[in-house]
């Protein structure tokens, strides 16, 4: 009898930074290694990754990383983990191509061992047998992963939907999922992102006809924005453009790279003469061009956002342009997105965010698809993942309504250990885990102290207090000085603060004033209190004590 541990380091109680460990006495397998995005209060943080301490401490046991698909929330943190521990990886060819280009770009990791996996072909990692299963999502080559253990199969659905007519015709292997259900699935870790949506999601191939109609009706240029990894959408844009006599061009570096790579590898099929560089596109007749643009989420540095601010030199938005949002806002991004839309409208563009027929469809399963997954795989235990607490709760309700025993459903939080033996399963104390904030320019973690300082600077600015102490008598050599940036305080208020600080400093002995560290700490504490009392602000205070 052996004990199986399931430990999410990210991806439970949130949508993002998916990374889960399956552990037994001698072996660990990691499924996915992704990033999430910071909240607005995380100033200067570009991405968030899981804390990898547990993996590093147990690296001798780790047999490898299995990747479900190439989205950033599943692969984006690989470069950070692999810099710490050199682990082998298993994934499909497209995922490998996308991961390699990012590893090389971000971390110059050229020597990583990447092994190919093929849906339907099992392979061994330590005592585990790993089985990738073909599934549909919004990027090609997504695999559900069954990990066969001594106690039964642990099945990761990965991000999934049941798309009966995917653009690449690679449908979900429902036969194998059903077989697994008959063999017995011990635990299902199920994507719960869209559990609150009724019914069944639209097929990706339903988007194509809508795009064709819009391309046909538009009298001027069409600019279309989408997630830069949505390769099937790019294919459908190319097809719609060809059918309506338009050439395709790309604006945005990341999108261009993905497009060119996928074209080279055969994931996007488009004739060379049907695409044109952006420099040529802008010179062509407006009704002969369709431009795929980055920035569907209002990202400030993306091409569409720059266009909305009239800062994108290669393409200027003009009267008669039709701009199509072929993406849904990720919750939290609505504000920036509508700001971009409004600016585009001001410049005379027609912006289509909604249409009678689908111009976007999600890659995640709606309620009935989740029900179908449960019916096929008949899991003994279920843990809703890839969802915030509200999604996890909705999934629990859905399962209970469907007759699943509540004590066999586990709502996990990051760091929890779900333990399973042959008799029962239970949640044990959390391991060391957390979030690591990364500033990509510095390529380093941002500590809590730095984040606190950035918050202080953003809210109330900085107050620099300089005092000069004469080393001969340990007295203040002259009146201290205050340099202020970003604080809302007039001259008088600053002078009052200085007066208060001077009064306090006169109470110290000369020997205390000559002790730089001691007196700096005293000034810091006193200044924070005085500034708060006089101005109701909490700027970052920097005391400078000079002894001359
Ligand atoms: Zn995901
Ligand atoms: Zn995904």
Structure description:
- This protein has 548 residues and is an alpha/beta fold.
- It has 3 domains: 4-199 and 362-439, 4-Layer Sandwich (Metallo-beta-lactamase, Chain A); 204-352, 3-Layer(aba) Sandwich (Rossmann fold), CATH 3.40.50; 451-547, Ubiquitin-like (UB roll) (Roll), CATH 3.10.20.580.
- It is built from 17 helices and 26 strands.
- Strand 8 and strand 9 form a beta hairpin.
- The longest helix is centred in the C-terminal third of the chain and has 20 residues, at 516-535.
- It is globular.
- The model has no long low-confidence stretch (mean pLDDT 94).
- One zinc ion (ZN) binds at residues 69, 71, 137, 159, 363.
Summarize the structure.
It is built from 17 helices and 26 strands. By secondary structure, the chain is α/β, with parallel strands linked by helices. The structure holds zinc ion (ZN) (2 copies).
Number of strands: 26
Q: Proportion of β residues?
A: 15-25%
Bound molecule types: zinc ion
**CATH level-four homologous superfamily name of the largest domain:** Ribonuclease Z/Hydroxyacylglutathione hydrolase-like
Uncertain stretches? none
Query: What structural category characterises the helix and strand content?
Result: alpha/beta
Please write the CATH class name of the largest domain.
Alpha Beta
Categorize the overall geometry: globular
- Distance from N terminus to C terminus (CA atoms, Å) equals 74 Å
CATH architecture of the largest domain: 4-Layer Sandwich
Mean pLDDT value: 94
Total helices: the number is: 17
Annotated CATH topology of the largest domain: Metallo-beta-lactamase, Chain A
What's the Cα radius of gyration? Answer: 28 Å
Major sheet, described briefly? 8 strands, mixed
């Amino acid at each position: 009898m052996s004990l199986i541990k399931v430990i999410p380091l990210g991806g439970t109680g949130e949508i993002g930074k998916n990374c889960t460990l399956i552990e037994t006495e001698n072996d660990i397998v990691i499924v996915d290694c992704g990033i999430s995005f910071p909240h607005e209060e995380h100033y200067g943080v570009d991405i968030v990754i899981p804390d990898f301490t547990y993996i590093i401490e147990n690296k001798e046991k780790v047999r490898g990383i299995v990747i479900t698909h190439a989205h950033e929330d599943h692969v984006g943190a690989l470069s950070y983990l692999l810099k710490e521990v050199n682990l082998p990886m298993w994934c499909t060819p497209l995922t490998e191509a996308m991961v390699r280009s990012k590893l090389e770009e971000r971390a110059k990791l050229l020597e990583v061992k990447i092994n190919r996996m093929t849906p339907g072909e099992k392979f061994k990692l330590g005592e585990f047998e790993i089985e990738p299963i073909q599934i549909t999502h919004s990027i090609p080559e997504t695999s559900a992963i069954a990990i066969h253990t001594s106690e039964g199969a642990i099945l990761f659905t990965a991000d999934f939907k049941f798309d009966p007519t995917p653009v690449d015709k690679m449908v979900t292997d429902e036969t194998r999922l059903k077989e697994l259900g008959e063999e017995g699935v011990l635990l299902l870790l199920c994507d719960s992102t869209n559990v609150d949506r009724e019914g069944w999601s639209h097929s990706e191939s339903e988007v194509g006809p809508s795009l064709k109609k819009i391309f046909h009706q538009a009298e001027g240029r069409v600019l279309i924005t989408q997630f830069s990894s949505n390769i099937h959408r790019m294919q459908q844009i190319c097809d719609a453009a060809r059918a309506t006599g338009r050439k395709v061009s790309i604006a945005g570096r990341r999108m261009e790279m993905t497009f060119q790579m996928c074209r080279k590898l055969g994931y996007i099929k488009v004739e060379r003469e049907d695409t044109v560089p952006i420099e040529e596109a802008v010179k062509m007749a407006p009704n002969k061009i369709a431009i795929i643009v980055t920035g569907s989420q209002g990202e400030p540095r993306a091409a569409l956002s720059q266009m909305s601010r009239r800062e994108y030199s290669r393409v200027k938005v003009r009267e008669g342009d039709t701009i199509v949002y072929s993406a849904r806002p990720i919750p939290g991004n609505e504000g920036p997105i509508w700001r971009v839309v409004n600016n585009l409208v001001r410049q005379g563009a027609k912006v289509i965010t909604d249409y009678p027929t689908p111009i976007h469809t999600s890659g995640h399963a709606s309620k009935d698809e989740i029900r179908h997954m449960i019916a096929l795989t008949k899991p003994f235990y279920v843990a809703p993942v890839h969802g915030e607490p509200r999604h996890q709760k909705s999934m629990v309700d859905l399962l209970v309504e469907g007759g699943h025993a509540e004590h066999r459903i586990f709502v996990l939080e990051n760091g929890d250990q779900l333990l399973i033996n042959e008799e029962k399963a239970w949640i044990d104390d959390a391991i060391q885990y957390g979030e690591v904030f990364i500033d990509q320019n510095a390529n380093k973690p941002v500590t809590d102290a730095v984040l606190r300082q950035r918050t202080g600077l953003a809210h109330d600015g900085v107050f620099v207090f300089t005092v000069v102490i004469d080393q001969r008598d340990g007295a203040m050599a002259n009146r201290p000085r205050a340099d202020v940036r970003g604080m809302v305080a007039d001259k008088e208020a600053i002078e009052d603060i200085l007066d208060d600080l001077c009064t306090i400093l006169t109470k110290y002995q000369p020997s205390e004033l000559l002790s730089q560290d001691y007196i700096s700490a005293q000034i810091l504490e006193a200044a924070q209190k005085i500034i708060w009392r006089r101005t109701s602000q909490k700027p970052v205070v920097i005391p400078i004590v000079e002894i001359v």
